[in-house]
């Protein structure tokens, strides 16, 4: 489990990235860290891309309905305007943000803010998703979470999309996606092509 680094009284920022496949518990982990900071009376702001309207519009909600209030925004640079007077910035569904997000996180960290980002590292075609590769490169602390493969029970690293849509941004839950290990993921793709 991630333990917050000790930070001396002079304010130093850093970047944490929580990544993994769908159903790996990324949002739960983000919420856990943010709630700990809130309990310690730190000022916390949470942002998510406007695109994710699956659940409540203004809450970061994980699949297990644990939630925390958040601000939906259209572009990453809005975070710089909105995150004033904060100690911690949380960002959920980072893969859907625009290319400015890594630079925004970098600027926040340089201002002494702790930045915690959660996002899908790979899209349904198994390719790196959005600016996650850049975020993983600039992050100081990386946590890669795994789900359980629904086919064989091994650790899952891939998000397998059932059905035939090839829209990169197809939001959904268990009816649309499955967590799978690499072997079962590619076996599934081969079966789809048949
Ligand atoms: Zn498997």
Provide a concise account of the structure shown.
The chain is of the alpha/beta class.
The major beta sheet can be summarized as: 6 strands, parallel
- Computed over alpha carbons, the radius of gyration is 17 Å
Find the structural class using helix and strand composition: alpha/beta
The CATH homologous superfamily of the domain at 14-146: P-loop containing nucleotide triphosphate hydrolases
| CATH architectural arrangement of the domain at 14-146 | 3-Layer(aba) Sandwich
The order of strands across the largest sheet is 5-2-6-7-1-8
| SSE order, one letter for each helix or strand | EHEEEEHEHEHEEEEEH
Number of helices: 5
Ligand roster: zinc ion
Low-confidence stretches: none
What fold name goes in the CATH topology slot of the domain at 14-146?
Rossmann fold
Helicity level: 10-25%
CATH hierarchy class name of the domain at 14-146? Alpha Beta
Shape: elongated
DSSP E strands, number = 12
The end-to-end distance, rounded to whole angstroms, is 42 Å
């Amino acid at each position: 489990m991630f333990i917050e680094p000790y930070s001396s009284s002079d304010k130093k920022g850093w970047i944490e990235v929580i990544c993994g496949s769908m159903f790996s518990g990324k949002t739960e982990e983000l919420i856990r860290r943010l709630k700990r900071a809130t309990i310690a009376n730190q000022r916390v702001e949470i942002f998510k891309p406007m695109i994710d309207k699956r659940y409540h519009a203004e809450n970061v909600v994980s699949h297990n309905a644990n939630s925390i209030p958040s601000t939906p925004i259209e572009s990453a640079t809005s975070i710089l305007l909105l995150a004033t007077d904060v100690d911690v910035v949380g960002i959920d569904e980072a893969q859907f943000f625009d290319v400015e997000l890594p630079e925004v996180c970098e600027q926040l960290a340089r201002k002494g803010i702790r930045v915690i980002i959660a996002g899908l590292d790979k899209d349904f075609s198994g390719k790196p998703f959005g600016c996650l590769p850049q975020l993983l490169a600039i992050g100081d602390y990386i946590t890669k979470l795994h789900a359980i493969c629904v086919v064989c029970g091994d650790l899952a690293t891939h998000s397998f999309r059932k059905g035939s849509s090839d829209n990169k941004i197809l939001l959904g839950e268990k009816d649309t996606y499955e967590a799978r290990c690499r072997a079962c993921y590619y076996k599934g793709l081969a079966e789809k092509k048949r």
